Amino acid sequence: MNQSPPTKLFTLASGKGGVGKTSLTLNLATQLAKQGQKVLVIDGDTGLANADVQLNLKPERDLAHYLSGQFALRHVLTPTPQGFTLIAGRAGHNQLANLPLPKLHQLLKDLRDLAQSYTITLIDAAAGVSPTTLAMCAEANHTLLVTTPDPSSLTDAYALIKLLWHNNATANSQLIVNQANAREAAQVHTRLTTAATTFLGLPPLPLLGNIPQCKHFSQAVRQHHLASTAFPNSPAITALQTLAKKLA
Ligand SMILES: Nc1ncnc2c1ncn2[C@@H]1O[C@H](COP(=O)(O)OP(=O)(O)OP(=O)(O)O)[C@@H](O)[C@H]1O
Ligand SMILES: [Mg+2]
Question: Which of 41, 97, 193, 206 has CA 20 to 30 A from 75's CA?
């Protein structure tokens, strides 16, 4: 009997903000869609959602509509020109910014059900170690921990690993080092893995890959384009293509 493989649910998380989670989520989703995957992305930055802004989209419905109880999650989807489907958030929405845990768990349950209709689902989580972000990591079957080589980003990545460990949610975590070359990424990987194995007794955290620093990223964001669309041949997008293949 043909059994469909279990859906892949990835949460992109970081301790420190501004390390590139949203850019990586959207560009990865674009590459995955190009490679034939059916991709769902949810803006999990419930307080400061901005995936729709980076995509230059004006969603008709978003998570606030879902939260109001008027619409099911499958009725707040926004198709994107990049070929994936977005569940947009809404920045500065009081209820979303202060999502009570029972509502969050209901949202994650509905997301898991909806994800069955997709081959890959990506959650773009809020930076930090809030209960919302930790729950999103625990819900996913893979956490993609994003850091840069910046020392404060590394310290915060370790803090996140530690809290995931406290919450029994470190299984299947992998590291993405953004704005780094391969050598820098290997150094970051060694430092984090050494700390996590020595102090927490964790197995080594696999390094999924590195994305080089790329001036086109911020240029694309300012022009309301995605780097994948505006600069498809840049080294960072090539690295993301490789990463997407590994995820799929
Ligand atoms: N590889 C890269 N090279 C150069 N700039 C990058 C790269 N990745 C991301 N950036 C830039 O870093 C900035 C922050 O990116 P982004 O908004 O994706 O981070 P974030 O982790 O989602 O932030 P937040 O924690 O606030 O949600 C943006 O200006 C983006 O263009
Ligand atoms: Mg973001």
Answer: 97
Tell me how crowded residue 101 is: count the other CB atoms within 10 A of its CB: 10
Q: Are the C-beta atoms of 16 and 156 separated by less than 8 Å?
A: yes
Residues 114-128 have a mean pLDDT of 97
Domains along the chain with CATH numbers: 8-247 (3.40.50.300)
Tell me the average pLDDT across 73-87.
Answer: 98
Residue identifier of the C-alpha nearest atom 31 of ligand 1 = 218
Q: Which residues surround ligand 2, an ion (CB under 5 A)?
A: 21-22
* Residue among 148, 147, 123, 120 nearest 135 (CA): 123
pLDDT for res 1: 45
Mean pLDDT confidence for 207-219? 93
Residue 16 has pLDDT above 70, yes or no: yes
What residue type is assigned to position 41 of the chain?
Answer: V
Cβ atoms of 188 and 146 within 8 Å: the answer is no
User: Is ligand 1 within 6 A of the CB of residue 236?
Assistant: yes
* 4 band by pLDDT with thresholds 50, 70 and 90: low
Structure tokens at 221: 């964001």
Q: In the sheet that 207-211 helps form, which strands lie side by side, from edge to edge?
A: 77-79, 85-87, 39-44, 120-125, 8-13, 142-147, 173-178, 207-211
The rounded Å distance from CA 22 to ligand 1 centre is: 7
